[in-house]
Amino acid sequence: MKTLAHREDTQEILRRLGALRPGSERRWGRMSAHQMVCHVGDAFRMALGEKAVTPASGLLQSTIVKWIALYVPRPWPSGLDTVPEIDQVLQQPLPCGEFASDLRDAITLLGRMAALRGHRWPRHPIFGRMSEADWLRWGYLHTDHHLRQFGE
Q1: Which of 10, 40, 81, 138 has the fewest CB atoms within 10 Å, counting from its CB?
Q2: Nearest-10 Cα torsion for 57, 79, 89, 115
Q3: Alpha-carbon distances, residue 75 vs 17, 51, 82, 99, 151 (angstroms)
Q4: What is the pLDDT of residues 115-148, one digit of tens each?
Q5: d(Cα 145, Cα 143) in Å, to the nearest integer?
Q6: Within a domain: residue 2?
């Protein structure tokens, strides 16, 4: 299973992120490519404990849904909701800066997350308590989901 714990999987995601362009067209959803880059960056900040988010979980989400999302080998479906603090469409006006700078930030944050070991991981707002392996798997899957959204 792909995870940011594996160097080759991290390099794959970094290559795909690097191929993204401001004009990349979405296949689904409401975000532009730039909004997606900011969303992914904010999601990494959340995982690193640098961005506070409101819990939006229940027993079902923190057990069965988490296990299915992280460990059933299927791509995540389109149309999934996120928490308001990292929803770039709700955060108007756009809290992003310049595309290239925001992309560099997202890439740096991904690299930081992939390199962490023994970190005190926060609770995920939907999946609840997660292990390091869960967070690194989530980091891969979340970014992959949004890269597929833009054909990368």
Answers
A1: 81
A2: 60
A3: 17, 26, 17, 26, 13
A4: 999 989 999 998 999 999 999 999 999 999 999 9
A5: 5
A6: no
For the chain, the helix, strand and coil percentages under 3-state DSSP, each to the nearest 5: 50, 0, 45
Tally of domains in the chain:
1
Give the domain extent around 141. Answer: 7-149
DSSP 8-state assignment for residue 25: P
Neighbour count for residue 75 (Cβ, 10 Å) = 9
CATH of the domain at 103: 1.20.120
Model confidence pLDDT, tens digit, residues 1-58: 999 999 999 999 999 999 999 999 999 988 899 999 999 999 999 999 999 888 887 8
Please count the other Cβ atoms lying within 10 Å of the Cβ belonging to residue 96.
20
Q: What type of residue sits at position 18? A: G
Asked if omega into 93 is within 30° of 0 (cis), the reply is: yes
Residues 6+ apart with CB under 8 A from 21: 33
Residue reference for tokens 């794959």: 12
